[in-house]
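wait is this the right file?? whatever heres the structure
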């Protein structure tokens, strides 16, 4: 199948490589021309403008956008619309808020443009292992693009989960769950790291991945992270959040669904960015005031 692809970052480039490996024809564009030239050297048909990309596609064209969610994706869609015709298809594979999908779908439908939202999980390992795809949109365009989805995903790793926005909605909740899982592992390993026993956390990670109920791919990644330096001295404990965790918590609030683990996992990420928490200072001051407990001063 011949498809356009915009955005050749770490995930986007590997998605193109996986599609090329499965004999799809990819017309690739990236704002940075060097990345376009690089992927063209691996078999893609490089384009150096959106007009050139659309012009190289068969009618009706389908274009996959893999750029940061928000303003970047909005701008890319607006530019694409200058070159697309009724019957053409846009696939947004970024971590877009599902509310944006619900807005875009009817707007694009009025112009005759099909819109598919694809939640993508797999990170930098997707090229080798496949990308888990959670796809939302109308049945007809999704069915037509299935050869692409099936090539990107591992066996049983693709599902048309529902109508417009459903793909990014499921991906949002997926990432919220990911926050909770990661936080539980982090707390457990911190307890063991602080224990009076001399514990090899890498070996314990390996052990738990053989028959344990907590075995997982994240645990395999922990095993890799602990290799050579389980104290992780080379890292700073500063943890970003990419938005989906916040949106998951907001959706839980909107639907009156209790989600304490995911919420606290998100709050812990916020705490990680404070070099010196004022809230912690207040706690220390109060303990000192009411109980005379020792405090540390600068």
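ok assuming it is, sequence goes like this
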């Amino acid at each position: 199948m011949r498809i356009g692809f915009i955005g050749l970052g770490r995930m986007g480039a590997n998605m193109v490589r996986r599609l090329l490996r499965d004999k799809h024809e990819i017309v690739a564009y990236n704002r940075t021309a060097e990345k376009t030239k690089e992927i063209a050297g691996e078999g893609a048909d490089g384009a150096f403008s959106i007009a050139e990309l659309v012009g190289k596609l068969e009618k009706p064209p389908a274009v996959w956008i893999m750029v940061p969610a928000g303003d970047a994706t909005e701008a890319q869609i607006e530019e694409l619309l200058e070159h697309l015709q009724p019957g053409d298809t846009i696939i947004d594979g970024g971590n877009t808020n599902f509310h944006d999908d619900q807005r875009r779908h009817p707007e694009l439908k009025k112009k005759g443009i099909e819109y598919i939202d694809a939640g993508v999980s797999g990170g930098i390992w997707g090229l080798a292992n496949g990308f888990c795809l959670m796809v939302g949109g109308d049945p007809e365009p999704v069915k037509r693009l299935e050869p692409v989805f099936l090539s990107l995903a591992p066996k049983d790793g693709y599902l048309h989960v529902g109508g417009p926005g459903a793909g990014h909605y499921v991906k949002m909740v997926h990432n919220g769950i990911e926050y909770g899982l990661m936080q539980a592992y982090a707390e457990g390993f911190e307890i063991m790291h602080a224990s009076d026993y001399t514990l090899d956390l890498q070996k314990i990670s390996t052990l738990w991945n053989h028959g344990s109920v907590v075995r997982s791919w994240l645990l395999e990644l922990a095993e890799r992270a602990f290799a050579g330096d389980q104290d992780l001295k080379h890292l700073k404990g500063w943890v970003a959040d990419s938005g989906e965790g916040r949106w998951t918590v907001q959706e839980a609030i909107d639907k009156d669904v209790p989600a304490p683990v995911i919420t606290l996992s998100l709050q812990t990420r916020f705490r990680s960015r404070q070099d010196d928490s004022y809230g912690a200072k207040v706690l220390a001051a109060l303990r000192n005031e009411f109980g005379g407990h020792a405090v540390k001063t600068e």
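The two ends are 64 Å apart (CA to CA). so i think its the right one actually
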